[in-house]
Amino acid sequence: MQADITELETKAREAKAASRKLANTSSDIKNKALLTMASDLIKRKEEILAANKQDCDTAKDSGMDAAMLDRLLLNDDRIAGIASDVRSVAALPDPIGEMIEMRTLPNGLLLGRKRVPLGVIATIYESRPNVTIDISTLCLKSGNAIILRGGKEAFHSNMTLVKIARDACYGSGIPAGAIQFIESRERSLISHVLTMKNVIDLVIPRGGAELVNMVRENATMPVLAGGVGVCHTYVDSEANLDWATAIVYNAKVQRPTVCNALDCIIVHKDIAARYLPMMARELNKAGVELHCDEQSLQILHSIASLKIKPAVDEDWGKEFLSLVAAVKVVDSLDEALEYIERYGSGHSEAIITENYNSAMRFLNEVDAAAVYANASTRFTDGAQFGLGAEVGISTQKFHARGPMGLRELTSYKWIVFGNGHVRP
Question: Which one of 97, 197, 299, 347 is most buried, by most CB atoms within 10 A?
Answer without folding.
Answer: 347
